[in-house]
């Protein structure tokens, strides 16, 4: 059996640790060690962990570097064959580890994998952050099997096949430890949001596979660190999306896609403004200014990646398909449009 480390990154999440960590321990301790990495929480998470879960290894990060830096710092201190990056607001189930590890062990080319992720408050439906495996369209808009924009499907077994996907959710991502370190881990500059898409895309650029394993099921609260409606979240999503596109797109598509995205982002910002979202409007503007300032650094990162065309990308615009053509389910999309 390979050595597995389940690593929970915590930031002011005592209530989630209290509620879900006992379940993680119950369903994991026979197969994996459990570690909590604390991102300089200002609540009493650390004292709570020390008093109530002395069997759990605690790593203390001395500042809140977000999801990316928090995990990078913690995982450098953990020896294992596989890491499981697990949000503190995840409820795991019995036998959630073995099916994923078995799938990854069956093919050394599988670098990362996610389980089926359902919503904890509506347990028969898929959850936003990962659902049945992640994809992006040709302009970088992410969506999932079971989730297209805000439309969440009921799980009727329609996505019960293990398949190769474009990205695995950072809410619960299994990854080979050696590949995590060899390929630079998560991009520290992302802080939070879309860092797992960037990481998976980099792995795909190196010829590795990202998989979805439906035999493992977990439930996710979602929005545990930032509220679902947040100009900070808008800023991070737009900023990081532009960065991951610039870093990872093949040369022949790069400038056309970036140009179109700049137009589409402008449309989105005007929509925010018309709907009274001044904060979101300004967040998009700030995201673009940051992107322009960081172009030299992004170009250096791009040179190291040496991007090329990879598989499982949706070759149409999911915005048009969803909002104009009214396609609400992943199964509404033509499989021939993924390549």
Helix and strand arrangement:
Blueprint: E1 4-10, H1 14-28, E2 33-39, H2 45-52, E3 57-61, H3 66-75, E4 82-87, E5 90-92, H4 98-105, E6 110-119, E7 122-126, E8 134-136, E9 142-144, E10 147-148, E11 151-152, E12 163-165, E13 172-176, H5 177-182, H6 195-205, E14 209-220, H7 231-248, H8 251-274, H9 278-293, H10 295-305, H11 318-324
Parallel strand pairs: 1-2, 1-4, 2-3, 6-14
Antiparallel strand pairs: 4-13, 5-14, 6-7, 6-13, 8-9, 10-11, 12-14
Helix pairs in contact: 6-7, 7-8, 7-9, 7-10, 8-9
Sum this structure up briefly.
The protein is α/β, with parallel strands linked by helices.
What does this structure look like?
The protein folds into 2 domains: 217 residues, Spore Coat Polysaccharide Biosynthesis Protein SpsA, Chain A (Alpha-Beta Complex), CATH 3.90.550; 78 residues. It is 40% helix and 22% strand. It has 11 helices and 14 strands. Strands 1, 2, 3, 4, 5, 6, 7, 12, 13 and 14 form a 10-stranded mixed beta sheet that branches. The radius of gyration is 19 Å and the shape is globular.
% residues in beta strands? 15-25%
What composes the largest sheet? Answer: 10 strands, mixed
CATH topology of the largest domain: Spore Coat Polysaccharide Biosynthesis Protein SpsA, Chain A
Q: How much helicity do the residues have? A: 25-40%
What are the low-pLDDT stretches, counting only 5+ consecutive residues below 50? none
Structural class per helix/strand content? alpha/beta
CATH architecture of the largest domain: Alpha-Beta Complex
Order of helices and strands: EHEHEHEEHEEEEEEEEHHEHHHHH
Mean pLDDT: 96
Count of distinct strands? 14
The number of helices is 11
The general outline is globular
Radius of gyration: 19 Å
Distance between the termini: 35 Å
CATH superfamily of the largest domain: Spore Coat Polysaccharide Biosynthesis Protein SpsA, Chain A
How many structurally independent domains? 2
CATH C-level label of the largest domain:
Alpha Beta
